[in-house]
Amino acid sequence: MTLAFNAALCALILAAALATILGRGIFRSIMFFIVYGLLMAVAWVRLDVVDVALAEAAIGAGLTGVLFLAAFGRLVREGAEAEPPRRINPPAAVACVGLTAALTWAWFSLPIPERPGPQLAEALPRAGVENPVTAVLLNFRAWDTLLESIVLLAALIGLWMLTREDDWRNRLGLPQHVRPGGVMSGFGRVLPPVGLLVGVYLAYVGADRPGGAFQGGTVLAAVGLVAAMTGLVRPPRISAPGWRAVLVAGPLVFLVAGLAGALLGTNFLTLPAPVAGGAIFVIEVALLLSVAVTLTFLVLGPPEGENRR
């Protein structure tokens, strides 16, 4: 039964990937991309990697899918060809096939790495947390997480560069109109409190169990988007200094903690054992807020001309 389920899951993942690439129409491809992300989350659960499954479901399928849908809506609003005719670009096809062949060769030619279980178990007491994934990403190999937070901020800055000078002081995104008593209005009353609890919980338990700042921040970003779409809150302006401070808080606190670790006798971004637990908690809180606000602003998009308030 397990083998049959795994085989069916692999087949569905391949089918969704092919449908995403070869499907007719941008909207249909986006839908299959979201399905692909959800199936990948199930696959990670089957591999007993719950942290990655949460990240894939929240960011890979959820948030990225919403960004694609927002881009599709922008294409429609600006009168672009939202459903271009299906064409095959021979150079691109050859490049994709060559890249796939190279990756396949690299996969089978690489030596099988040793399991890090004994080494990680020995070092885990010095990490200040019980979750090995959190220990690796925020202490033992924190470069990856720091760069991920910086890349998110750079993506938002790149999006804001699309803003026209006349719109710089306007609020983010387009104005939202919600029918009182409708479905979206009901979502705005019910979902934000529940999502707020879930997001904070995922970040809080990330030190000891599956979860973390990125997973919790994505849920909080969804809360912010629902609140903005239902009119509960007004989107801020780019020029608001408080929101800018929250955006840089995560990477900045991360860098300060890394420098403090180096000054205290350990390596850069390696936290000393006596203060590792508290430092990771502070980093997680800062990252939670930065990730939530950054992802929310990415989906809302830059200020637009119609949004003059």
Summarize the structure in words:
The chain is an all-alpha fold and 309 residues long. The chain has two domains: 1-109, Up-down Bundle (Four Helix Bundle (Hemerythrin (Met), subunit A)), CATH 1.20.120; 131-309, no CATH class. Helices cover 70% and strands 0% of the residues. The protein has eleven helices and no strands. It has helices at residues 2-22, 26-46, 50-77, 90-109, 117-123, 132-140, 143-160, 183-205, 213-229, 241-263, 273-300. Helix 1 (2-22) runs antiparallel to helix 2 and helix 9 packs parallel to helix 11.
Mean pLDDT: 81
Amount of beta strand: under 5%
| Pattern of helices and strands | HHHHHHHHHHH
Terminal CA distance: 59 Å
Low-confidence residue ranges: none
The helix count comes to 11
**Biggest beta-sheet profile:** none
Radius of gyration: 22 Å
Shape: globular
Helix vs. strand class: mainly alpha
What is the tally of beta strands?
A: 0
How many distinct domains?
2
Helix fraction by DSSP (H/I, runs of at least 4) = 55-70%
